[in-house]
What does this fold into?
Amino acid sequence: MKKANILLILLAVAVINSSAQTKKPISAEQAKMNKFVSGLMAKMTVDEKIGQLNLVTGGEATTGSTVSTDVESKIAKGNVGGIFSMTTPEKIRKTQEVAMKSRLKIPLIFGQDVIHGYKTTFPIPLALAASWDLPMIKNSARIAATEASADGLNWTFSPMVDISRDARWGRIAESSGEDTYLGSQIAKVMVQGYQGDDLRKVNNIMACVKHFALYGAAESGRDYNTTDMSLDRMYNDYLPPYKAALDAGAGSIMVSFNDINGVPATANKWLLTDLLRKQWAFNGFVVSDYTGVSELIEHGLGDLKTVSAKSLSAGTDMDMVSEGFLTTLKKSLQDGKITITDINTSCRLILEAKYKLGLFDNPFKNCSEDRAKNEILTPANIQAARAAATQTFVLLKNDNKTLPLKKSGTIAVVGPLANTKANMPGTWSVNADMALVPTLIEGLQNVGGKDVKIIHALGSNLTADATLQTNGTMFGREIPRDNRPEEEIIEEAVKAARKADVVVAALGEGSEMTGESASRTDLNIPETQKRLLAALLKTGKPVVLVLFTGRPLTIKWENENVPAILNVWFGGLQAANAIGDVLFGDVNPSGKLPVTFPQNVGQVPIYYSHKNTGRPLADGKWFSKFRSNYLDVSNDPLYPFGYGLSYTSFTYGDVKLSSNTLSKDKSITATISVTNSGSTDGKEVVQLYTRDLVGSSTRPVKELKGFQKIDLKAGESKNVTFNISENDLKFYNSSLKYVAEPGEFKIFIGTNSRDVKEASFTLK
Ligand code: NOJ
It folds into this structure.
């Protein structure tokens, strides 16, 4: 390891020691749990303890090629602590009954990737983040918890809180985007939504925060790739959302696959013990990712026995699928490579989780057929998913009031994504029943009503390359394919367009073109679709691009040429109806981008809260020699973070501060008047950013510190007020101390991270 790195790690450890929390006295409830768990552990053999650390699949491989085998006989022998990806009260009861016949009758915990809703699928996480609507996001997690728990589950592998600033990375779709503050707020409400106030209640499930840590900063945006990061960036930008989720009470955390500064997370003692346990005082359990333990062999850390011992002693408590713990830990104990305390510590944490969930009182608490029948896919849940989706769409462009559409006339709905059910819900919607998902055509007809005539043509394939289309439509997410020559398919769509009053082009990505192991180096809409779009534009008919995507795409050409663009991400079960609601103007769009859209892929990673450099480019310039810029493209993004239009317009007044000085332990307010200056009622996300002008370390040019989503009737004005206190100005300095430094600060309030009004104050 380089000397500088050693120094930084020593520094981080010193910070941990100085800030380690003093032990709080334990509550009567905790004392009761400790007594119960200690009593149980006193009866357990080493094998049974190791068994608790083993997490297996319910029989099918999910996100890797390894599958658990002989699951039932392992459960019977006490060799399994939990199962994932098995659902329904019937199957779960049957499996739990096997555990109840094992010697100590320790219940299993049942998990699944309940990521954006359960059967009532909500929009993908990146889309939810675009709503900036925390109560709605919390409610989506609440509904997911109710449905999942009604179907037998008590644990979800969510929320995913990895910050990502790299659109090439496919899993950006599962994240809340690029911003630390927004990501932390969402992390918190997701955990609250899943876990409720008491995990023993039948409709609450345990959250598992993932992927710890820095998974979203994989080099080159390639999934599972190495992360190498400074402590400044870690502490200030990437770690806070994990911390926010844990502070909200998340009961478990999943380790990421990636290497962090030379040590893979699964075996990273600094990460899992020094930071997580000592500094953050996390008292839940740590689970590896899918075969994360055995993958340490490929990382080059040794054989299965060695890597299993390393993971356990680093702080991984539960081994997902590798069975490295199950098959080697006892031998490592005998060889003195690990201690019985290592095993006891992990076993205790897992038993405590089961205790907190009330599973020792009732192992079958989630096995009610009645609940499964009555609480899943209820009309209220479905309605909530539809309303939620309408809040996530981002209107990127709307020239000449192309939108909203009239509920009359002929609409040509064309493109490979117009007539597919499977593409609508989005990646990680394993429980979605595709038969229940309307296609875009169906959604538009439902909302448009009888006076709207819809005509359809495929217009193009998803990608010209059939293999790419197959790889981008996995897990049954097929999209119709036509093997005729491209010109013929396009011509058919052009004919349909000529007959129509307006064209809706449903283009973009297949839903499995993002998600796990779906990284891309080209962020364009596939070329064959672009050729279709160009041909449609040539007809002279108004064209609305309905853009499906799980990541920022490079749509510079589209932005220059298409009059209206609505980014709809992947909107869950009710996506199509919700798109109808927005396209026809029943709902005014209000989503704002939680990620910067680049002009081209060469700008990636691009994010608004960057540092300034010593040679920043002057505002409004494209290129100046010896300045920090590119020869071939300006530094500007295509659409900035926080951007999104509405069918109405909002006018901002000036920022008024209650005082120009802020003293420690006091707060000031910043108030701005926002007016709906158009003729349609609408919602606006008012965003507050700050800049610390002089610091002991370099500070970002802007940092989001608050936002409010407000309703404004046409013509209405409201004053929006934000409180600012010293706490909002704190950051980790170069000694990793969390401080606010006296001096001048700027405040920016506006409709996105670029278009803002500003004011200044001094922190005394
Ligand atoms: C691998 C993924 O990285 C993780 O997010 C997921 O929870 C597990 N597989 C389990 O399916």
About this structure: The pocket of 1-deoxynojirimycin is lined by residues 62-63, 113, 157, 210, 289-290, 516 (CB under 6 Å).
